[in-house]
Every structure is written in structure tokens, then in C-alpha cells.
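This part of the workshop introduces the protein records we will be handling. Getting from the letters to the C-alpha cells is the skill we practise here. An example says more than a description, so a record of this kind follows:
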Amino acid sequence: MKKFLISFFVIVLIDQFIKYLFLRGFEFKSKCISLVLAINKGVAFSMFSFLGESLKYIQLVIILGLLFYFYKEKVIHKHPILSGILFGAAISNLLDRFIRGGVVDYVYYHCGFDFAIFNFADVMIDLSILAFAYYYFVKKDDKISS
């Protein structure tokens, strides 16, 4: 549990610090990538923004449900650092919704095509899900849910 908590808080602190810099005016623009502040009131590609304030409560229930499942199925015990990264990133984005009314995004890729704007926590969520998929499908981690 110690590894889970450490990785959880490290991700939250890093993500919130980066977001703080953008909230204080940091910007960088290049031909392909712009680092600019955007408040996303939806999820990926601004989907579900029509849910307004309800979205943060729906996400809270989903995160708590997933956390309960991970604990009950001993996923946190088996993969504490990976679980801490996933939940730290999820909670950091959720914290933005409660404090700032939307998720603070800042990485915008626009070289050849426009891509969604995202943040460090989004990348950590994606990487942790890919790692879990690797353990489950490639390594045949049958004990991930036992």
C-alpha cells in the first residue's frame, strides 16, 4: 500500500504543479506543438460536456467504483505503482473539475492534423492502461483479478 500511496501522490503533485504553471501564464508555441492553457469541461475531445456539473460526480462514482474493484480484486496489491499512477492521474483531473470547473489541458498537437488537447495526467492514465493491458493480454497475468 505504501508504493501505491507514494506513486499516487507523486503523480498528483507533478500534474498539479504543471497545471499551476499554465494557470500562471506559461505558454510555448511551435510549428507542431503548442503548450497553451485550455479548460476542458468534457472528457476526451470535449465529449459529454453537455453534462455540465453532473460530469464530475459521475466521474467520482466511476473512480470510486474502480478503486473498490481494484482493492477487492487485489490489483492494487499486485500492481501498486501502476495502480497509484492510474488513480493519482484520475483524481488529479477530477480535482480540477471541482476546483476549476474543468480539466486543465495544455498540450496541443497540430502538425498535419488537429489532435485533442491533453495534459500529463491524461498521458499517465493512457500509459497505465496500456501497461495493465500488456500484463493481462501479453504476459497472461491471470492473477490480475484474483
In short: Strands lie at 28-29, 33-40, 103-109, 117-118.
